[in-house]
Structure formats: structure tokens, C-alpha cells
């Protein structure tokens, strides 16, 4: 598929590898020891401008924990000014007042992970005491402020109260709730090398991810498949370029042509069937996913 047929509509912007939590299943292997990488604020602004120029419509700021990145507010304002829709995927434990103001002023959407209705259960996953209390309080605060918020529950530990977590989010007023199993990337791989077979096959389809060092990946999980670096090559040259063609050919060789079953981790806004697509995509055509006991949609109660 050519770049003209596969327009870049969405990008994850991983602005930091620093996180105040240390979840066992973190696909990015982020932690309190993470860094902001080598991308400067001008680098990120230039990247955002390039995304806007080539027709992208939405970005999601991720990490690590993006609210720990000191220039997040500035980048949100820049993306908003460039005409991009903005979502921030945050654990919602560390929201400064000025960020709340920026979320409102720039029409930011939020997404968060929520592991249990039990504080002990949730904090066991995050390895951060008090994280459940702060996340739950900020979910309520976001909704009170009229900020759109999606919630997702990843099944990490045996006996984890995932259904109860989904019901608790619904009781708070969260209308979009997804669920998934742990994926074998980052710390969750337990040291095993990542493979293309572990991906869903939608990688580089209308989307890419850009990391803290400027590396461009076909998705947030496919960070072992670099297709370029925005610090030395323009996005216009990377997208549809020879390295991307090689990577997508490797993915197609494993997954075949066309849509593949897709149960995206972290309830990312591009894919289904566990969440509707973002407005700029407007469609979703994955093959029916295996929704067995370990996977897929948890969903809010009727």
C-alpha cells in the first residue's frame, strides 16, 4: 500500500519514559528511572507541525506518564494550535492545576487505566501506594469538568477484580470502558524478545508512534521495528519510505493482507472492536477477535 493510499491520520507521541508507577505489564518498560529522552521541545513542535502538514488529525500524548513531562502543557497548546485533536493517556495521579486548565481550554480528551475497585488490588498492579485513590478522584474531577474520558481495565493478576473495576468506572460516569489482557511486550514479556506475530497486524495503518529519542515506530507495541527518526529525516520521507516499506512487508508476511483481529492494549483510540474509532478514522473493520476469558472487551454493565 502506498503512502497516498495509507494516509497518516494519527500519532502517539511518547514524550517521556519517566513514570511514577512501575506496573509489571508496562509495554514501554517505563518507570521512576525513566528519562525524557533526547527530543527537545523544538523537536516535538517541529514533529507536530509536520504531522499537521501531512494531514494527521489526532495525536495522543503518552509515556511513561506524560503529565510528568515538564513541557506537556506547551506541546498540547501547540498541537491544538496546529489544528490537531489531542488526547492524553495518563494514570491520573499527578495532574497539576494548570494542566486541568489546559485540558479544558484545548478540548483535550483523557484516557486512563484502572485495575480494580479495590485500592489494594489496583495499587498491587501499579506498585504505587495511593495510586487508586488519586486516579479515582481525578477520574471524577475530569468528568465534573466536562472533560471526555475513556477508561480501560487490563487483566494483569489472577483474581484481579476487573469486572468490578469496569462497574466502578461506569458508576463514576465513564461511558467508554474497554478491557484487555496483558500483552507480551516490555516488562510483560519477562525478557522474551518481541515478535511480529505478537502484534495485531494493523501496525503503520494510518498511524505511527514517535518515541522520546525521535524513533518512529509502526505502533506503540512495535517499537522493535523502527521505520525512521524524526531528528534526521522528515516525517513525509519516513512515511511510505523504503524502511517503512520493508517493515510493513515483514508484518504482512506474518499477518497477511487486510485487517486482522484487533484487541488493542491500553484501549488506544485507533482500533476496535473494544472501542469505537476516533472520528477522523470513522470506520473499523477488524476480523472477529477471539474474546475468550483472557481477552477483549470487559464493557460497562447494562
From TrEMBL:
Q: State the UniProt keywords alphabetically.
A: Iron, Iron-sulfur, Metal-binding, S-adenosyl-L-methionine
Gene3D superfamilies hit by this protein: Aldolase class I
Q: Does the keyword Iron-sulfur apply?
A: yes
Give every Radical SAM core domain span.
Answer: 14-152
The record's CDD domains line, in alphabetical order, gives: Radical_SAM, SPASM
Domain 4Fe4S-binding SPASM: start-end pairs? 202-248
Q: Please give one Pfam family short name.
A: SPASM
Q: Does the keyword Iron-sulfur apply?
A: yes
Which residues are the signal sequence here? none
Q: What protein am I looking at? A: Radical SAM protein
Q: What organism is this sequence from? A: Streptomyces albipurpureus
Amino acid at each position: 500500500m502506498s503512502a497516498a493510499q495509507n494516509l497518516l491520520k494519527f500519532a502517539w507521541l511518547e514524550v517521556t519514559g519517566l513514570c511514577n508507577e512501575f506496573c509489571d505489564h508496562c509495554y514501554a518498560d517505563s518507570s521512576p528511572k525513566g528519562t525524557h529522552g533526547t527530543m527537545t521541545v523544538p523537536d516535538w513542535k517541529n514533529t507536530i507541525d509536520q504531522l499537521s502538514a501531512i494531514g494527521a488529525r489526532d495525536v495522543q500524548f503518552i509515556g511513561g506518564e506524560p503529565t510528568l513531562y515538564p513541557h506537556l502543557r506547551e506541546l498540547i497548546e501547540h498541537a491544538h494550535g496546529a489544528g490537531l485533536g489531542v488526547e492524553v493517556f495518563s494514570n491520573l495521579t499527578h495532574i497539576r492545576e494548570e494542566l486541568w486548565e489546559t485540558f479544558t481550554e484545548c478540548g483535550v480528551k483523557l484516557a486512563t487505566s484502572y485495575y480494580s475497585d479495590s485500592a489494594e488490588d489496583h495499587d498491587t498492579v501499579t506498585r504505587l501506594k495511593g495510586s487508586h485513590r488519586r486516579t479515582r478522584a481525578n477520574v471524577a474531577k475530569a468528568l465534573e469538568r466536562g472533560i471526555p474520558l475513556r477508561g480501560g481495565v487490563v487483566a494483569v493478576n489472577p483474581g484481579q477484580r476487573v469486572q468490578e473495576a469496569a462497574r466502578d468506572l461506569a458508576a463514576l460516569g465513564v461511558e467508554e470502558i474497554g478491557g484487555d489482557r496483558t500483552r507480551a511486550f516490555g516488562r510483560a514479556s519477562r525478557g522474551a524478545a518481541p515478535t511480529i506475530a505478537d502484534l495485531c497486524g494493523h501496525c503503520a495503518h494510518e498511524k505511527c508512534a514517535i518515541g522520546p529519542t525521535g524513533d518512529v515506530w509502526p505502533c506503540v507495541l512495535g517499537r522493535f521495528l523502527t521505520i525512521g527518526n524524526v531528528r534526521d529525516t522528515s516525517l513525509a520521507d519516513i512515511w511510505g519510505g523504503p524502511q517503512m516499506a520493508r517493515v510493513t512487508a515483514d508484518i504482512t508476511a506474518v499477518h497477511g493482507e487486510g485487517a486482522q483481529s484487533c484487541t488493542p492494549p491500553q484501549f488506544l483510540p485507533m482500533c476496535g472492536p473494544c472501542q469505537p474509532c476516533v472520528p477522523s478514522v470513522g470506520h473499523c473493520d477488524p476480523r472477529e477477535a477471539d474474546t475468550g476469558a483472557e481477552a477483549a472487551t470487559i464493557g460497562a454493565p447494562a
